[in-house]
Amino acid sequence: MTGMPFLFLRRKASYEDTFLQASQAVDRFASETERLVIRLEPSVDPAEVSLGLPDDSDDGVAAVEASHDERRRLLGTVIHRLDLLSEAAFLQLDQVRMPTRSERLAGRFSRRLMWRRHNRRLRLSSAVGRLVDLIAKTDEVLTLLRRYQQVANLARDATEECAARLGRHRRQLLSDRETALKDQKKIAARALVLAGRIGLYGDEDDQHRMQEERKTLLAEAKILEKKAGQLRVEADLVIEAAIKMEALVACFNRDVAVANALLRKVILDAEERDVGYRAHVDLGAAAAGFVGSSAPSLTLPAYELGRRKSIAESTFLKLFPEYMPAEHATGAPLIDMAMRRIPRWRLRFRL
Predict the structure, then answer these.
(1) For labelling, which of 58, 66, 214, 267 has a CA lying 20 to 30 Å from the CA of 91?
(2) What's the rounded Cα separation, in Å, for the pair 171 and 167?
(3) Of the candidates 302, 245, 270, the residue with the CA atom closest to the CA atom of residue 138
(4) pTM over 0.70
């Protein structure tokens, strides 16, 4: 019975588990976007666009927002854990990159022999393999983020174009309704004129003809009035679909913004890790198995890379404030510039 409580301990999710969940979330997002694009094609009747969209209740919109927020949270967690792996890898590399005592002893006789032994030991160390594995994981995250960005752009463009099409269709419906109402008023006025002429002009045949014509005009006016009501109802349905579509556009715009920010950060992280690898490891070593990152090489100076990485980090922490370091979580400045009164110590001497 002493070992039973350990069965209920929950294992902390590893980086691989989180990356798998994020990949599955992006796959679901891609399949949902594909179905959405098919449903929002220009050939589809605008009156049927609202089918399959979230209802305009708070629960429907909240469910869509929750699914998108969960996907963004998973991607942010993947990048945060990748940063933790990067810190651990470079910390281990800093511990093994210094020459050992035997290497320094060999350096008294030959500097070339010292650095040859040092490079051989560094290439065969687990720190270099850990750094190469980190760069490979960075490439996987880059591929995932590029796909996420592509799908988000596709969904945003499709919903924006559909929202514009719904707006044009609503304006056309309201224009047709105004035309129907004008025609109905004209026909009703003609029927009223005929009603005033009946019994005053013409013989019995003319009065009978005017009565039949008046009935026909009243029937046409009623049909036009009914058509105007139907057009009004259809315009209301279209505006409801347009409101839902605008909510989807706003949601996909946030997806695009998050994808751009995360992709910019990971590209700078990949550049920094490549620079760190080249700075610590001999590139002539084939045993390291390093093939380089798939991220575009920025070839930035160190100060520019640091500045851009600082901006990307601040943007990432604004999107995911839960990953802000504890020392910066309170929002206090790093340097307190408040003026403090320095006490004066007076030494009184007696003459």
Answers:
(1) 267
(2) 6
(3) 270
(4) yes
